[in-house]
Amino acid sequence: MANIKSQKKRALTNAKANLKNNAEKSQLKTAMKKVKAAVAANDKETAVKAFNEANSLLDKAATSHLKHKNYVARQKARLAKEVATLG
Question: Counting CB atoms within 10 angstroms of each CB, which of 16, 44, 50, 86 has the fewest?
Answer without folding.
Answer: 16
